[in-house]
Specification:
The structure holds two protein chains of two kinds. By secondary structure, chain A is of the alpha+beta class. Chain A folds into two domains: 27-68 and 318-449, no CATH class; 73-311, no CATH class. Chain A has helices spanning 13-33, 35-73, 87-95, 103-108, 145-150, 162-167, 176-182, 211-220, 225-234, 285-299, 311-354, 356-364, 369-406, 414-440, 444-449; strands at residues 77-82, 115-124, 138-142, 154-157, 171-174, 191-194, 197-205, 241-245, 274-279, 306-309. In chain A, strands 1, 2, 3, 4, 5, 6, 7, 8, 9 and 10 form a ten-stranded mixed beta sheet that branches. In chain A, a hairpin with a 2-residue loop joins strand 6 and strand 7 (197-205). In chain A, helix 1 (13-33) packs across helix 13 (369-406), helix 2 (35-73) packs parallel to helix 9 and helix 11 (311-354) packs across helix 13. The longest helix of chain A is centred in the C-terminal third of the chain and has 44 residues, at 311-354. The two termini of chain A are 35 Å apart. Chain B has a single domain (33-55, 74-219), classed as Rossmann fold (3-Layer(aba) Sandwich). Classes of the chains: A alpha+beta, B alpha/beta. The complex binds adenosine-5'-triphosphate and magnesium ion (MG). Magnesium ion binds at residues 45-46, 91, 167 of chain B. Adenosine-5'-triphosphate (ATP) binds at residues 12, 14, 19, 21, 39, 41-47, 91 of chain B. Chain A: One of its GO terms (cellular component) is plasma membrane. Chain A: Residues 87-108 are annotated as: Disordered.
Chain lengths: 452, 220
């Protein structure tokens, strides 16, 4: 009969499951008894979580898309792209004796210790005389290193080789899409005619992942327009290109998409569209870019008819824009959740004031204030958790719907679904603590005296 | 000595003034005692039981439970006393309307240290002892006043406390049922449980070992 020998702090692990089950049952019953009221009270949480989920999913999708683009461009790469010049700018270029991006610019970079390798490309627009109707492949002259830097995979044959460029071999390599579209003409060993010139097909590229399908979507993207625009000019749709060795496509006077349309008066060579530079290490990209900009500025006699596109910087920029976007929506979500949380607090206060008698009785049969606290805090969390789950489902639906409507990429990863769940639990804890503490602080006998 | 209360005073404060209910109550309860308390309505019997049961702090006085001053105890220790040592049979039953008979009887087991399975066995046995084994799944509003009273008694019995404070436990029962409950009380008293029972019925009080009268805020 030793009352006080019984342990005061019940460390009854075996009892917790029992207690939790009983309290959960009570909580569910009390919520079910006021179905409509419970439902209305979690509406705010549902909306808040729905917004959070949709925002995270859209943000995640954008992030994945941007990352994919930038990874494709290569983190250690720097793109030096010739500017498209207006008439007036071309006049000024002449005055500065700048002949645009030249292969000589590229060759000068060889001595730079930061740089592993470089590639040059020149986009051409010429009519392929004997192609089937409706096919508009892009023609591109490039160095052999282009394939190496971009890690181009071949389906058949080989890419442009060093020897091709040096010996000016009349060969070409087809992107997978154009090869397929050309049918029998687009096979290894066939010849492709440009004007008078015939080029032997020596290779066909493996399909580059998913670029085609996304092409249309990309134009629709309104969000992160900046990045998309830039990446779009740089990341070519490799599937629709026919590659030639540099300086092997005839017709030196024809219009080229970029820079000065005329050849360098000294070398007689057309300007390049793009010089692709691969830096040895990612942390050297920034200093190297600054170096390149300065040396090109000098080489072009102070006329900047080029721009540097640095994927690493695009990444930082994209993250920054994403960060602002996230912040705005985090604030919106937080406000909604706050309002929703107030609703929960309100309903818990009403709930508790209706159950004062129950609280009194529980205290009278041995419940400690903590037991009461946990019970009502648990009910609040249960409410917000249900709200959170409904909200996540609605958010997923909303995001998918928006994604389908606008063409935005949508990313659902586990954190997208778990974070809002955690947020809803925290909302329950935050807004449930005040009512629960109020319940726990009640005097047993006064509570018991209140009408049941 | 189980309980030793000295000079207990209690007053209720109303909006207008205060009402002195207990005035210097002295009470000793031996272990395994069976005490009946009688008194007119409003004399403060329920108030006294609440004080003895650690639910209500008296305005002044001392109350020792096995040598320890319960008025000095922490909330945690009080809760444990209520959960394991002292059980009330309330005058107004105080059953939870949303729970079944069995769940009501099991309620204290959420807060005491009896293992769940044993608690359920005890609960069923207690319900059987008060003759309600057919009503396990009924809600209180489906029961008569006497049946609710018996559920309240079963809830106290199931805890296997050292002390049961029963406030008019037979107030709603007919003579036969009252007698059954009294027989049950004497039985558990034999087994070592101390009982304090408030009653208006001298015949019921006569079955206790001793009877005290509460008059003018004093025990006689
Ligand atoms: N919470 C309270 N606040 C104010 N006054 C109270 C309160 N509880 C009881 N009283 C008053 O204290 C007095 C004693 O009440 P108590 O319930 O102890 O009487 P009782 O002896 O149990 O009466 P009964 O036999 O009718 O149950 C009554 O006059 C009652 O009005
Ligand atoms: Mg009374």
């Amino acid at each position: 009969m030793a009352i006080f020998n019984k342990p005061v702090s019940n460390k009854q692990g075996y009892k917790q499951g029992y207690q939790i089950r009983a309290l959960l049952k009570t909580a569910c019953l009390s919520l079910l008894q006021q179905k409509l009221r419970s439902l209305l009270s979690i509406l705010g949480i549902v909306c808040g979580i729905m917004a959070v989920v949709a925002v995270i999913a859209i943000g995640e999708g954008a992030e994945q898309e941007t990352m994919r683009h930038i990874k494709q461009m290569g983190i250690t790469n720097i793109y030096i792209r010739a500017d498209q010049l207006t008439e007036e700018q071309q006049q000024r270029a002449k005055q500065h004796h700048s002949a645009g991006l030249q292969n000589s610019d590229r060759e000068r970079l060889r001595t730079n210790p930061f740089i592993r390798r470089t590639a040059g490309t020149r986009e051409r627009t010429r009519n392929l005389t004997d192609l089937p109707q409706g096919l508009h492949p892009q023609l591109m002259e490039c160095t052999a290193s282009y394939g190496d830097i971009l890690g181009i995979q071949m389906a058949l044959g080989r890419f442009i080789s060093e020897t091709d460029t040096v010996r000016h071999h009349q060969v070409c390599v087809l992107g997978s899409q154009i090869a397929a579209d050309m049918g029998r003409k687009g096979q290894l060993g066939q010849e492709i005619r440009i004007g008078e010139q015939l080029s032997l097909v020596v290779g066909i590229l493996a399909r580059q992942d998913g670029e085609d399908g996304q092409e249309e979507l990309k134009t629709k993207q309104t969000k992160k327009t900046e990045i998309t625009k830039v990446t779009k000019v740089t990341i070519q749709n490799l599937n629709n290109i026919i590659f030639f060795p540099l300086d092997t496509v005839a017709g030196k006077t024809e219009a080229i998409t970029t820079t000065a349309t005329t050849a360098d008066p000294l070398t007689g060579q057309l300007p390049l569209t793009e010089i692709l530079v691969e830096v040895k290490q990612a942390d050297q990209v920034k200093p190297c870019a600054a170096l390149l900009r300065r040396s090109l500025h000098k080489a072009h006699n102070g006329f900047d008819d080029f721009q540097l596109i640095i994927p690493l910087e695009l990444l930082a920029q994209a993250r920054k824009i994403q960060g602002i976007f996230n912040l705005v929506f985090a604030i919106i979500g937080a406000i909604t959740l706050f309002v929703g949380g107030i609703g929960i607090m309100n309903i818990m206060l009403a709930n508790i004031s209706e159950r004062i008698h129950e609280i009194g009785l529980r205290r009278a049969v041995g419940a400690r204030p903590e037991h009461i606290l946990i019970q009502f805090l648990g009910e609040a969390v249960l409410l917000t958790l249900i709200g959170g789950i409904i909200g996540i489902l609605c958010g997923v639906l909303l995001a998918s719907f928006l994604g389908r409507l606008t063409g935005w990429p949508i990313g659902f990863s586990l954190p997208v679904l778990l974070l809002p769940l955690a947020i809803s639990v925290m909302t329950g804890l935050f807004f449930g603590i005040y009512p629960a503490r109020k319940a726990a602080a009640m005097d047993p006998i006064q509570a018991l005296g209140s009408p049941s | 000595m189980l309980i030793s209360a000295r000079n207990i005073n209690h007053q209720y404060n109303h909006g207008s003034g205060c009402l002195q209910v207990l005035q210097g109550v002295d009470l000793d309860i031996e272990e395994k005692d069976f005490l009946a308390i009688m008194g007119s309505s409003g004399s403060g019997k329920s108030t006294l039981l609440h004080i003895l049961g650690c639910l209500l702090k008296p305005t002044s006085g001392t109350c020792f439970l096995r040598g320890r001053d319960i008025l000095q105890l922490q909330e945690k220790e009080l809760a444990q006393l209520r959960a394991e040592t002292i059980a009330h049979v309330f005058q107004q039953f105080h059953l939870l309307p949303t729970m079944t008979v069995l769940e009501n009887v099991l309620l204290p087991s959420l807060y005491n240290s009896i293992p769940p399975q044993q608690a359920e066995a005890e609960a069923r046995r207690a319900i059987q002892q008060v003759g309600l084994e057919q009503r396990l799944r009924h809600k209180p509003n489906e029961l008569s006043g006497g049946e609710m009273q018996r559920v309240a008694i079963a809830r106290a019995l199931a805890v296997k406390p050292d002390l049961i404070l029963a406030d008019e436990p037979t107030g709603n029962l007919d003579q036969d049922s009252s007698q059954e409950i009294l027989t049950l009380f004497r039985e558990i008293n034999q087994q070592g449980c101390t009982l304090v029972m408030v009653t208006h019925d001298p015949e019921i009080a006569g079955q206790a070992r001793s009877t005290r009268y509460l008059r003018n805020g004093n025990l006689q």
